[in-house]
Amino acid sequence: MDTLTANNLTLGFGDRIIIDELDISIPKGEITVFIGPNGCGKSTLLRSLARLLKPKDGSVVLNGQNIAKMRTKEVAQNLSILPQSPASPEGLTVYELVKQGRHPYRKMMKQWSQEDEDAVLRALEDTNMRELMNEPVDSLSGGQRQRAWIALTLAQETDIILLDEPTTYLDLTHQIDVLDLLFELNEKDNRTIIMVLHDLNLASRYAHHIIAIKDKKVYAQGRPEDTISSELVSDVFRMRCNIACDPIFGTPMCIPHGRGRNCAIKESMNNPASTAL
């Protein structure tokens, strides 16, 4: 069953078309990852799925309804989005940030409820941020800050979470930390998670479903094992590579071609007249 679909979707700015007559279906309860080269429209597509960008043509359908015709609060109670590199006001604490996730449930004159408080504390627990709840967001490390923002989306209590490059600017340890957290949320709560990722190996490891974007349309989609290939990488990213099996997870692993240090050493060995490294 698909929770979120795009039908004949065309997106752009002014006369420039970014996505052209695209059709996709997001599997419910799975992790879907958009991949593609810079500028191909991945983030634009993600924003449109969250109703942050009005289509030039076509529609986005959420739980059987045209998202454009739904009330804003109704959309916000069904899906949440974490943009790339979000910023918070200076001095805002983690707790104050996460509280903002309850905004879709707030009514005029309604006081902060125990239900709201429980949702915030549960989100802080799920992201291991409870001990840092009184710390200013801008004092946290990159990985902690990203967890705080993810806690905000969890406090919103939506079945669908969209994230635009959630590992950007994080070191490898924190990248894995954030992706493990999202994987656990999917496993534990059956949440539908949609992400934009640049790292093909991490995308293959964490995604149930891959959607590759090229030339304003879907180039390929499906399970990583059925989708990621040297032909796809060559066609979509214009890069030669070998595809191997990840020795730990058994998922596709992209080994890009290029020069590198060993390549230079081999050339030197094959050509004694060249300068040794």
From TrEMBL:
ABC transporter domain: residues covered: 4-240
Membrane topology according to the record: Peripheral membrane protein
Keywords: ATP-binding, Cell membrane, Ion transport, Iron, Iron transport, Membrane, Nucleotide-binding, Transport
Domain of life: Bacteria
Annotated compartments: Cell membrane
Keyword field contains Mitochondrion: no
GO molecular function: ATP binding
SMART domains from the UniProt entry: AAA
InterPro entries: AAA+_ATPase, ABC_transporter-like_ATP-bd, ABC_transporter-like_CS, P-loop_NTPase, Siderophore_ABC-ATPase
Pfam families in the cross-refs: ABC_tran (PF00005)
Protein name: Siderophore transport system ATP-binding protein YusV
Source species of the chain: Oceanobacillus kimchii
Name of the coding gene: yusV
